[in-house]
Amino acid sequence: MTRSENMSRVKSKNTKPEVYLRKLLWHRGFRYRLNYKGLPGSPDIYIPKYKVAIFVNGCFWHMHENCKYASIPKNNHDFWKSKLEGNVQRDKQNYIKLESMGINVIVVWGCEIKQMMKDKVIEKEKTDYLVNHIFSTPNSK
Question: Is residue 18 situated within a structural domain?
């Protein structure tokens, strides 16, 4: 498979980590909008009742600091460095815009979801933390 074919298979919506997190939230009673285009950055999950935007970020694409999945490829290094740094900069700008609109931003990393999928204790701990974070937002009703 060529790099082009491989990259064409990379999804931006409905990734396994995203679907997994959505199911956890749904079973906890949260109702949400998906990839809401009405907000900067089109959050993966938007919970209007609590004014919370959740981004499920892939560690590679969004350069998760100190993560083993977030290394810049050695081939064509300058291109990838520029591309990935641009993603991070765009993310920061979108988070600032959302927060200025009174929307709380939560970022969940792909590596965190991988841990949750492997270990039910970690899944419960991280889901409880996320739910508490949603409920404790200043914008929640």
Answer: no
Residue 48: CB atoms within 10 A of its CB come to 12
Q: Please report whether residue 127 resides in a domain.
A: yes
Residue 2 resides in a domain: no
Confidence bin at 60 (pLDDT 50/70/90): very high
Taking alpha carbons only, the member of 13, 11, 64, 10 closest to residue 37 is: 13
Contact 34, 45 (CB under 8 A): yes
Closest CA to 32 of 102, 87, 21, 139: 21
Question: Any idea of the CA torsion for 114, 110, 13, 101, to the nearest 10 degrees?
Answer: 130
CATH code of the domain containing 68? 3.40.960.10
Residue 94's domain spans which residues?
A: 24-50+57-73+80-135
The residue count of the chain comes to 141
- What angle (nearest 5°) sits at the alpha carbon of residue 83, between those of residues 77 and 84? 90
Provide, rounded to the nearest whole percent, the portion of the chain with pLDDT above 70: 89
